[in-house]
Write a structure and sequence with these properties.
The chain has a domain of about 70 residues: Helix Hairpins (Orthogonal Bundle), CATH 1.10.287. The protein is about 80% helix and about 0% strand. It has 3 helices and no strands. Helix 1 packs antiparallel against helix 2 and helix 2 runs antiparallel to helix 3. Its EC number is 7.1.1.-. It comes from Geothermobacter ehrlichii. This is NADH-quinone oxidoreductase subunit K. It is a multi-pass membrane protein.
Length: about 100
Amino acid sequence: MITVGHYLVLSAILFSLGTFGVLTRRNAIVIFMCIELMLNAVNLSFIALSRHLGNMDGQIFVFFVMAVAAAEAAVGLALMIAFFRNKETIEVDDINLLKW
């Protein structure tokens, strides 16, 4: 029998993996994928708790998180394409346009 605790543990593991990826990777595309992993981990916990508590609030928040994730992906990929056209790289260490 799979309980809510199992889903929450899985969500915590996925969120931790995403956090580790954001903090250790240098490729911007991989960082965006790790952020998506973190957002989906939060969605999993929202759905599990919503199902456990018997209300729809968590499922409504999932739609908001999915909208934010879609916007982040669209804007982030557009920025990465612009950086790649200018700098020929998408490594975050090389993207230092705001530094003097």
